[in-house]
């Protein structure tokens, strides 16, 4: 990833998933339908600036996830 000044920096991510239910059988075909209001875009900008509230929300979600990991 490149910073605003052009320098490269390495980023790491950690994602934890917990399976709460596992069922064998056919899937509902509605799961594969395109949602109403969907629109195709040429490119998704993953480096969009976020407002302060978004950063606080992300930090809170990370804190909650860590607490859940600790107590579970």
Write a structural description.
By secondary structure, the chain is an all-alpha fold. Helices cover about 30% and strands about 0% of the residues. It contains one helix and no strands. The mean pLDDT is about 80.
Would you count the extended β strands for me? 0
Multimeric state: single chain
The share of residues in helices is 25-40%
Strand content: under 5%
Name a few traits of the molecule:
72 residues; mainly alpha; 28% helix; extended
Describe the secondary structure blueprint for this structure.
Layout: H1 52-71
Give a quick rundown of the structure:
The protein is an all-alpha fold.
């Amino acid at each position: 990833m490149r910073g605003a000044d052009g320098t490269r920096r390495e980023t790491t991510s950690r994602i934890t998933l917990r399976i709460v239910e596992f069922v064998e059988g056919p899937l509902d075909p509605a799961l594969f339908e395109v949602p109403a209001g969907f629109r195709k875009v040429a490119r998704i900008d993953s480096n969009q600036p976020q407002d302060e509230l978004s950063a606080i929300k992300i930090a809170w979600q990370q804190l909650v996830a860590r607490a859940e990991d600790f107590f579970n």
